[in-house]
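can u do me a favor
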């Protein structure tokens, strides 16, 4: 989490002065700086917040569906069958 946030914040902070530059030479670079900055911020929010939340919602719905249908909850432990032949 820390390296991702530090990379995002330093890149966004480094490109922010370029976005507010008024010179003629910078007018060609401003669209690139805006695209990189907001794209990076959007991707970071998507990766660190939205995707984990969607995963949690999916697993909650799956657990509720299994509870509703009376299926046992999967614990990750595979039990051996009693009548298994060697």
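np, heres the sequence
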């Amino acid at each position: 989490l820390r390296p991702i946030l530090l990379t995002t914040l330093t890149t966004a902070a480094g490109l922010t002065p370029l976005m507010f530059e008024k010179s003629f030479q910078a007018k060609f670079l401003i669209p690139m700086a805006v695209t990189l900055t907001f794209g990076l911020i959007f991707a970071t929010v998507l990766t660190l917040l939205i995707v984990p939340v969607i995963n949690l919602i999916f697993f909650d719905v799956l657990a509720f569906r299994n509870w509703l249908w009376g299926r046992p909850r999967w614990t990750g432990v595979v039990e051996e069958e009693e009548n298994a032949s060697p």
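The chain has a mean pLDDT of 85. hope that helps!!
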